[in-house]
Amino acid sequence: MSGTRLRGLRGWIGAAATAGLLCWVVFGWLVPGFTAPEGIRASVAAVAADAVPSVPTAADAAATVTVTPATPAPAADQSAAGSSLASTGETALLTGNAALVDADWAARVAAATGIPRRAMLGYAGASLALAAEQPGCRLGWSTLAGLGNIESGHGTHAGSVLGTDGTARPGIFGPALDGSDFAAMSDTDGGAWDGSAAWDRAVGPLQFIPATWQRWGADGNRDGVDDPQQIDDAALAAGRYLCNYGDLALPDRWRAAVFAYNHVDSYVTAVAGYANTYAARAK
């Protein structure tokens, strides 16, 4: 990476080919001919044009990347047995971290940001769970939303949709890491998560490589299964990974955490841009 200047969002794939990453970017604007969904298209254009003109040096990025803390999601009324989405015609009962979030707040912020409601519940639920589990981390939901936008368009890559249970259908998979176009990563999961017993590929709305999921996989919806295709599980796992870098309210710790997720400075800048946009729209 030293001395290389990458232009725009497409540079992340070329850079990723030389690094062992937690995740793999697959969302549509890295795929020729794909158009971002209505509702997030304007924010995609703004970041592509303004926030990611080139890869900054490490010193520049550390000095300039600042994330405005998002207003924390309010907790749901826990006197009820669970929360439902009946008001939108979705009757599935929410369990686990998604049930921690006030449903009215989630609906309002989803409308304001263009983030699908079920993804919003996953990000905010993980943030609330981690606030109790690791209070010194101070991870905002908007950071997870920034990652989710870049990694899979909040679970919408290639026509996928997050169901009311939070699972991406059809499943979201990155390219086979077979060494032809990207760095070779031999199979580590027997195809259990990525469907390939020959080569690894990243999985789910937050694009975990199987070996990383084996270490960091989480059960955010409390169904007894760690599933990288399920947004509550994936968001909690991503949050725990990021929180491993300390107090994320500190700019240098936040940058180190997001850089660890994908070792490209322009990626860090873009996540910050989305996180700040979401935080501002949620006010």
Mind explaining what this structure looks like?
The chain has one domain. Helices cover 40% and strands 4% of the residues. It is built from ten helices and four strands, in the order αααββαααββαααα. It has helices at residues 11-16, 41-51, 58-64, 103-113, 117-133, 141-152, 210-216, 231-243, 251-261, 265-281; strands at residues 83-85, 90-94, 161-162, 168-169. The strands form two sheets. It has a two-stranded antiparallel ribbon. Strands 3-4 form a two-stranded antiparallel ribbon. β3 (161-162) and β4 (168-169) form a beta hairpin. α4 packs across α5 and α6 packs across α10 (265-281).
- What class do helices, strands and sheet pairing give? mainly alpha
Low-confidence stretches are 1-20, 27-64
- The span between the termini is 38 Å
Q: Radius of gyration, rounded?
A: 18 Å
The amount of beta strand, in percent, is: under 5%
- As laid out across the biggest beta sheet, the strand order is 1-2
Listing every helix as H and every strand as E from the N terminus to the C terminus, the arrangement reads HHHEEHHHEEHHHH
The helix tally amounts to 10
| Major sheet details | 2 strands, antiparallel
InterPro entries: Lysozyme-like_dom_sf (IPR023346), MltB-like (IPR043426)
Keywords: Membrane, Transmembrane, Transmembrane helix
Organism: Cryobacterium glucosi
Transmembrane segments: 12-31
